[in-house]
Structures are given as structure tokens and as C-alpha cells.
From TrEMBL:
Organism: Thioalkalicoccus limnaeus
Protein name: Uncharacterized protein
Keyword Transmembrane: yes
Statement: the UniProt record of this protein carries the keyword Transmembrane: yes
Keywords assigned by UniProt, alphabetized: Membrane, Transmembrane, Transmembrane helix
Transmembrane segments: 12-34, 66-94, 129-155, 175-199, 211-229
Length: 311
């Protein structure tokens, strides 16, 4: 009996090694795909058209940053779950103590009928898949797709989108955005749990169950792809270096009171220019030859969108 766990572990390691190449290839593709979505939508948010090709190592770095940020939100979920359990456990214990003191009702079933009805409803094969579809659809339509309105922000006069999205984008406290990503993860985990519950039930006499399960799986895949999009728009690259250019050959910089380096591509450097420091300052984007980086010095790092829309 003692050799069984070791044998199981050995078989698991053997299978892992046998499929190592496939796992590395799939993982690399996913990191690259997530990085592509995150970086591309981040640049679209700022209003930058770059010279990035389809194959570029920056996508891998962006994907790695997205995964690290997302994984770092998992401890937040665990902490919130522990807090919820810590608050609910004393209340539940107190309710049990109070109920034990009260006399039992005469002629009434031990379990209320509404609770029994809810349990019977949950045991139906269609319940988890329908709940999952409703939750995934609401998550995509009402939350995750809202960030698509955030585009070309550095050349806009006003900030688009609903108030909650604007507050999230311009929040000074990074914890707010971390909680947002953690909430998205929690919703995705809930959708995945409902899908697993639906797959574990036999759709006897219900041929329409399989298409519904496939639809829920598709919605979850869409939500997973929207996660790096939200990261690129709302999280990534909120601080950029404020720079001073020591080159008189660029006459377009003469009107700039302040400049920030927004993007440093393979051929072009994109600077954000604020023409004056007043309340009604005018902003523009300048695309200059990449050689300008040899005449630049970094002064500090600023939250560029906060400066743009809060002054």
C-alpha cells in the first residue's frame, strides 16, 4: 500500500516528461497570444500606431507581465475568501446556538420547503449550465466589453465610458485595479465551476444540453481572451517617463512645455506633448525618428492618463 502513492507520482512525472514539448509549445503560444492582446490594446488605448510586426519578442514580455499580474491576484481572492469565512462562521455559529435554544415548531418539516425547492432546482441537469451562461454573458457584456470605448485617449478632449470605468482607469491606488482583476478571476472560476457541474450530469432525454454546454465553454473562452484585453487597457503602462530632449533639430518640440516618451519602437519614438501647463493645455502626439533617444534624458515617471484628464 505504501508504494501506491510513489507509483502514482512516478507515472505522473513520466507522463509530464513525455508531453513536455507539447506543454512548452502550448504555454509559449498562450503567453504570446495574451501578450499580443494586452500590448496591442494598450497601444490602441493611447492612440499609437506602431511598427510592431506579428512576430516580436515584446509580446512575450507583455504576456509574461500579464500572467504575473493575474496570478498575483489569486492571493487577493484567497484573502477575501478567508475574511468572508471568518465573518460568516461566528454568525452561523450564533444562529445555530439561538436556534437550539428555541423550541422546535410543531408539525413542521425540519427543512423549509423553499430550501428543499432550491435544492431540487439545483439538482436539475440544466440548472448549472443555464446559470453559467447567464453569468458569463453578463460578465462579458456588462463588464469586460466596456473597456473597448477607451481608445486614442491621449488625443481626446474628454474621457469616454461609464463613470465606474473612468474611476478605475484613473485610480491612484493600484489596489483598486488589482481587486478588479481579482473579481474577474472569481467570476471566471465560478463560470468554470458551473461548466464542470454541468458536464458531470447526464443529459438523459435532453439532447439540447450538449449545445448549451458547448455555448458555455465558448463564452468562458471569450472571457479568458478578454482578460488580457482588460489588462492592456486598464492596467498596463499607466506610468511613462517624462523626458527632456537635447536636440534643436526637432522644431516640433519647441512648442512643448512637457514631453513624455510613450513608445520606443524599432523605427519610431512616440512622444506625448503638452503645449502649456495651464488648465486648458493642448495635447498632441509626436512621431519622431528613433535616433532621438540618444538626445533624451529621463526626469521622472508620471501617470500619463491622470495628468491628461485631471491636470
Amino acid at each position: 500500500m505504501s508504494a501506491s502513492p510513489r507509483r502514482t507520482l512516478a507515472e505522473t512525472l513520466k507522463a509530464f516528461v513525455a508531453h513536455w514539448g507539447t506543454l512548452v509549445a502550448v504555454s509559449s503560444f498562450l503567453v504570446y497570444l495574451f501578450g499580443y492582446l494586452s500590448l496591442r490594446f494598450h497601444l490602441t488605448t493611447l492612440g499609437i500606431e506602431t511598427d510592431l510586426n506579428l512576430l516580436d519578442e515584446r509580446y512575450l514580455f507583455a504576456g509574461a507581465r500579464f500572467l504575473v499580474y493575474t496570478v498575483s491576484a489569486i492571493p487577493i481572492l484567497v484573502l477575501l475568501a478567508l475574511i468572508a469565512v471568518g465573518l460568516a462562521a461566528p454568525l452561523f455559529l450564533l444562529a445555530r446556538i439561538i436556534s437550539s435554544w428555541l423550541p422546535a415548531p410543531v408539525g413542521r418539516e425540519p427543512a423549509p420547503r423553499d430550501v428543499a425547492g432550491l435544492r431540487a432546482l439545483w439538482r436539475r441537469p440544466a440548472t448549472p449550465v443555464l446559470l453559467g451562461i447567464l453569468l458569463a454573458t453578463a460578465l462579458i457584456q456588462l463588464v469586460m466589453r466596456q473597456c473597448f470605448v477607451m481608445s486614442n485617449l491621449l488625443v481626446r478632449e474628454t474621457l469616454p465610458g461609464p463613470d465606474w470605468l473612468q474611476a478605475l482607469l484613473l485610480a491612484d491606488n493600484e489596489a483598486v485595479r488589482s481587486l478588479y482583476i481579482a473579481a474577474l478571476l472569481a467570476a471566471l472560476i465560478a463560470c468554470w465551476g458551473l461548466l464542470m457541474a454541468a458536464l458531470g450530469r447526464e443529459p438523459i432525454g435532453k439532447p439540447w444540453m450538449r449545445p448549451l454546454q458547448a455555448l458555455l465553454a465558448l463564452l468562458i473562452a471569450i472571457a479568458v481572451l478578454l482578460l488580457p484585453v482588460n489588462h492592456g487597457i486598464l492596467i498596463a503602462g499607466k506610468t511613462v517617463p517624462k523626458v527632456v530632449v537635447h536636440d534643436s533639430n526637432y522644431g516640433s518640440l519647441d512648442r512643448c512645455a512637457d514631453t513624455w516618451l510613450i513608445w520606443n519602437g524599432s523605427r519610431l519614438a512616440v512622444l506625448s506633448c503638452r503645449e502649456d501647463a495651464g488648465a486648458a493645455s493642448r495635447w498632441s502626439l509626436l512621431m519622431l525618428d528613433r535616433s532621438i533617444e540618444q538626445q533624451m534624458s529621463i526626469v521622472r515617471f508620471d501617470p500619463i492618463l491622470t495628468l491628461r484628464f485631471r491636470g
